[in-house]
Amino acid sequence: MVTDTVTPPANLAALIQAVDAAESAIALVQAVRALAQAQHEAAVPTFIQVLGFNNPGAAVAAVDGLVALGPAAVPALLAQLDGYNYGARAWAIRALALIGDPRALGILLDTARGDFALSARRAAARGLGTLRWEAMAPAEVPAAQAEVLSVLTIAIADSEWVVRYAAIVGLAGLATALVDEAALLPTIRDCLMERLRRDPEVTVRARAQLALAHLA
Amino acid sequence: MAESITGESWTLEQAIANLQQTADPSLRYYAAWWLGRFRVEDAVAIAALESALSDTTDRSPDGGYPLRRNAARALGKLGNRQVVPALIQCLDCEDYYVREAAAQALAELGDDRCIPALRAKLGGGLAAAIAVPGKPHLVEPYAAVIEALGMLGAQAAIADVQPFLDHEVPTVSNAAARALYQLTADEVYAERLVATLQGPNLQLRRSALMDLGAIGYLPAAEAIATALTENSLKLIALKGVLDAHLPPTDSGPPPLTERTIDVMLLMDSLL
């Protein structure tokens, strides 16, 4: 992933400078993409700054840059979470969700449980299904997975279809990583069956159907 | 008044009473929205909204009719076709935004009695479709009218809509592409929207995205997923695409095909 995290490549300052100096929305996207390709930790503050620019193309590229850095980006993302604006917070949660570092478990649980922004609830619900459990102390995993399941059973009844959809994807991911299948799998199956039978949105029902097909 | 603008806790009777009183225009305006938001299909509420369509008390500084606008929007959500004649009358209101809201509401209600009145709005073609001096809009709400004709399946309007593909205002030409795809199923029109998705203007990318979702154009799924817009909008557009290719909600488990699964996997990647 990241080979040398100490010495910035010679052109990193120039790449960061290019992000700061971008004069159009498209130029910003390109500058952020170029910076992401450098894969260096020193770019993290710049990526985090870009999340708040209200330029969705650039935010996608910044999230990509953060995700490529993996766990190295997590402390800065967590430390600055309270300072983000509405849009940036959702992008930051998405980055944490995609990285899957267990240090973000608490914030993902809280967010999925009831953040006011549906895009944040959505990203967190999905991220709870793709945590890198191998990075957590094995003794902590069973209780953490039970808590993830209990929060996803809340998210799967959200009033927003996209959060319910994301919770299905989260449950499908959790199902493939269970350390105690006998304890949790029946609940996952019941939740998915409930969505398949009752969700008012056909797209959500279809996703539940797909998840159930993969459980079998 | 701030106290009363917490409509979450209103009862139906309170909302209707708030719409029918005339002392507080902002309360009426909010009550009209509330009835639409909470999908109140009660006959008394519908009648109160219908009469609000001809309200003359609530005037904006530029001479508009704010309450009429909100009443029309609410009626579009409530599914009661009895109000179609009153909404058709609103297409001739002097307030542009009332005409726009009425066209959108008529599209949602799906009653083809309004088609002749909508087509009449396109009379004069491109030459007549010019901006109003000093206003941020054209002489008629062309995009809303054209979208409505598309949603209503107004085959007779194809020739009326065609010239607007070349309108210089992109929201109007996008609306024409969207409607013509719905009316002809010719992919040429949908591909115009796909091209707009790759364009330099964020607002137009957003609008093309929502149009492609609204017409359920499956070949655009990948282009939607990679467009430079918010994931939230892409997810809504892809849901539109998927909804159009899945059977209605109450007909048993939706059958999964390779292509619908592809779209779901694209959606998963955007969550």
- Largest sheet features of chain B: none
Report the β-strand fraction of chain A as a percent range.
under 5%
Q: State the name of the first-level CATH class of the domain at 1-109 in chain B.
A: Mainly Alpha
The secondary-structure element order of chain B is: HHHHHHHHHHHHHHHH
Share of helix among residues of chain B? 55-70%
Q: Over the alpha carbons, how many angstroms does the gyration radius of chain B reach?
A: 20 Å
Q: What is the C-alpha radius of gyration of chain A, as a whole number of Å?
A: 18 Å
Structural class of chain B: mainly alpha
How far the N terminus sits from the C terminus of chain A, by CA atoms, comes to 34 Å
- CATH topology term of the domain at 1-109 in chain B: Leucine-rich Repeat Variant
**Biggest β-sheet strands, sense, barrel of chain A:** none
**How far apart lie the N and C ends of chain B?**
39 Å
* Broad shape of chain B: globular
How many helical elements of chain B?
A: 16
Task: Summarize the structure in short.
The complex is a heterodimer of chains A (216) and B (271). By secondary structure, chain A is mostly helical.
